[in-house]
Each structure stands twice: as C-alpha cells, then as structure tokens.
Amino acid sequence: MTGQSSGESPIFGDDFRTIFSDLIAWRRDVRHFRTDPIPPEVIADCLALADLAPSVGNSQPWRWINVSQPDLRAKVKAAFTEANNAAAKIYDGDQAALYARLKLEGIDAAPVQFAVFCEESCPQGNGLGRQTMPEMLRYSTVCSIHTFWLAARARGIGMGWISIVDPAAITETFGVPSSWTLIGYLCVGYPAEDHIVPELERRHWQHRTPNEERFRKQAFK
Amino acid sequence: MTGQSSGESPIFGDDFRTIFSDLIAWRRDVRHFRTDPIPPEVIADCLALADLAPSVGNSQPWRWINVSQPDLRAKVKAAFTEANNAAAKIYDGDQAALYARLKLEGIDAAPVQFAVFCEESCPQGNGLGRQTMPEMLRYSTVCSIHTFWLAARARGIGMGWISIVDPAAITETFGVPSSWTLIGYLCVGYPAEDHIVPELERRHWQHRTPNEERFRKQAFK
After folding, report:
1. Which CATH architecture has domain B36-202?
2. A151 and B24 in contact by Cβ < 8 A?
3. Structural domain boundaries of chain B?
C-alpha cells in the first residue's frame, strides 16, 4: 500500500488501483435498503469528501438538505408516485408489465435521505468558467453527489438517485430559493444485498452494451 | 488491504478509505502538463472504468471522441481563445488583471484530449428515469467524466476540464449528430506539478469557503 495523507503528493499503487476498480465496479444504484441507522459521523465523513469535488471556478455550488422529517419524506414519496405513474404510461405490453414490477426508489426504508440542489446564482467563483456553459454549476453538483456515492460505497453504504419526480414539486416541498435547481433526491443506507450487476440488468430492463459506439478515435468529419 | 476483484462482494478497509480520501483531496483541475506521452493501454483502462459510471436507466449516454488531429486541437484552442476573451470583459480593475494572468487550459501541451458529448436521444435505457428530468442523461455523462478523472489521478495523470468554449463551435468542429450535447473538452497528461490546493486558490481567485451554507439539516419551511 502506498500513498499518505500528509502534505506530500501521494503516489498511488497497483494495490490501491485494484481496489478502486472494485469500488467503481461494485457501486450500484440501490433501491433495497436495510433500515439500520448509519452513524452520523460516517455520513459527515462522506459529506466532507463530497465537498472536495471539482467545481467550476471553485464555486462549490452544491446545496445539500438532510431530509429527516417524516412529513417531508412522505411528500417526496407522493411526488415520486405521481411521476412514476405518469412515466409508466409510455410503455406497452410486456415492457409495461416489466416497468410496473421495477422498484425505483427506497424512500420508505433508507435511513438517510438528501435533497441536493444547485445554486445557479452562486457568487462564489466569480463567474469563471461558466459564461458560455452555465450548466457547469449543475455538473459540479453532480460531481459532489458522485463523490459522496463512492465514499459511501467504500463504507459499505449504498445510495439510490431518484430522478422520477417533478423537480418543481420538490423545490416547493423544501421551500428553497428560486435560484436553486434540483439535481437529485438521494436515498442512503446499508443495501439489502450487494451486486456487481446493475438491478436493471438483472431484471432484464436494460443490459450494458459493447462500447465501440461510445468511444471514437475520430471526429465525424 | 481488504477487498478483491473476484466475484465476491468486496469489503473495503480503513487503509483503502485513507488512500481514497487522498485521491479525492489531491485530484486537481490541471492546466500545466508535461508533454510525455501516456501509454494507450493506461488511457484504455481509465476509459473502461469511465464506462462503468452510473447512468440513468443504464443508458450509458456518454460519447467520447479522442482528439489527436492537430487541426482539430487548433480549432478548439481558437474557440477557447474567443470565449475567454469575451469572458475576460466582465471583470474590472484588479480582478481583470488577475483573470488575464490565469492559465485556464492546457491544449498546447496535453498529450491526450477528449471531446465528450451526451447523446440526448439515446434509445438505450428505454427512457427510464428521465421523463421528468431529461437532464439525467447529461448528469450520467458527467459521472463518466468524473470517474475517468479519478481513475487517471490514481495513475499519476492529471485532467483539466475546459468549459470556456461556445458549445456550438465544438459540435460544429467535430461534426457530431445534432442530438449530441457537449459536456466538456478534456485535456489529459502528466501534471507539471502536484498540488493539494486548487490553482484558483493558490492564485487568490477563489478560496474554498466554510461549508455551513452548503449542508443543511432542515428544509426552509
């Protein structure tokens, strides 16, 4: 094992990289949680790492709300149910039946939940790097969520990212400033099971595909 | 060191987590590169991990173009220069002088460069999870870039994410389908120096700030 947390630049070794690859391969979007509580200091450690995520102009535009109140969770669950019922209607036949059987959220069981927003009018960073691509603030917030996700998985904790909600319903539920954009609603807890294969693949909704189409050596012209 | 890359669920240990924290803390947005080539198999390893990033509905919407042709790199550099000159005009006085001294790209030196797009009309995933938040496709692509970034850093390789370009100029340069959205232009190479402090902080553009504003225990109402 090489590397250190002191002031010197760490040199990462093969053994670290092997386990890091495991972390990437075994990260899942979790929807089946155990209800065991997570020690607050463990969540705090994950949030401290999430706060080190890359951000455009060093703007740190992410805004995390720890959602513990049952009434707020119930409102999010209702927003999910409404959006999910509407989403189900775009499918027919076998695909509709399969969609109806998928579990796409873990709001009832996950002991820790976050609503994560992006502050679009964030003064920090002085606008650097976001004149032509203001969406970089949202992308920075995604990096913060992804860092939390990996940090949690490294502690045996799973995360599920809920996007089947009307963002307006969530911003209204939490009464956030109008300049805040919902990026994701996160369910966090110990997973009921670990899997290297995504649940959507195990349930034959969507398999991963060969990557030739995704990585090209040439421009189109 | 615990964990394994076999079929069994890995258990990540304290030693792994310590080095993972170093990885997060020492990841930087790099603009000063050495020109030494990177072995293609090392880049391939990083891309293979990037392809395991979370994606909405298992859609894998990221599209990476490896940009090696000098004429294409020159066009990207020109697009950067134009956007950067326009961006510089929003600052006055000392801030304008400071902005003018910042190095915000590494196109001339970085041995490996990628233009990364999101396929907005991606059929893979069958639309799951993106009816109310179609931007989840773009967020998935960000997770792919962030995974590459960390995988590269674990190999001593730096990455810089360029967002100071008109996205239309880049999509035109590469002749990509109209359904592709530019997410970032990436410069990749061995960094001239390693730093735990971001360059924008070292150059007094923007320091990180205390995180009380970013992490809340309560909704606003």
Report:
1. 3-Layer(aba) Sandwich (3.40)
2. yes
3. 36-202
Buried b (16+ CB within 10 A) or exposed e, B149-162: bbbbbbbebbbbbb
Helix (H) or strand (E) holding A184: strand A180-189
- CA-angle at B15, arms to B198 and B141, nearest 5°: 50
Q: Which amino acid is at B112?
A: V
Taking the whole predicted model, whether its pTM rises above 0.90 is answered as: yes
Give Cα separations from A8 to A4, A90, B162, B196 (angstroms): 7, 54, 27, 9
Of A65, A83, A220, the CB nearest to B175: A220
Distance from CA of B143 to the nearest CA of A (A): 7
Contact B56 A163 (CB under 8 A): yes
pLDDT tens sequence across B40-54: 999 999 999 999 999
Q: Which of residues 10-39 of A touch B (CB under 8 A)?
A: 10-12, 15-27, 29
| Whether residue A116 has pLDDT greater than 90 | yes
Smallest Cβ–Cβ distance between A164 and the set B132, B166, B196 belongs to B132
Residues of chain B short of pLDDT 50, as ranges, are 1-5
A94 by Cβ neighbours in 10 Å (0-12 / 13-18 / 19+) ranks as: exposed
Chain B contact probe: residue of A142, A181, A195, A209 with most B CBs at under 10 A: A142
- Tell me what ipTM this predicted complex has: 0.97
Residue A8 token pair: 């010197």
CB-based burial of residue A174 (10 Å sphere; 0-12 exposed, 13-18 middle, 19+ buried)? Answer: buried
pLDDT digit string, tens, across residues B194-210: 999 999 999 999 999 99
Residue of B nearest to A73 (CA): B219
Q: Which residues of B touch A210 (CB under 8 A)?
A: none
B176–chain A nearest CA distance, Å: 6
Quickly count: other Cβ atoms within 10 Å of residue A15's Cβ: 16
Q: Which of B27, B28, B50 is nearest to B144 (CA)?
A: B50
Select from B31, B5, B20, B148 the least CA-distant residue to A128: B31
When CB atoms are compared, the residue of A22, A163, A164 closest to B3 is A22
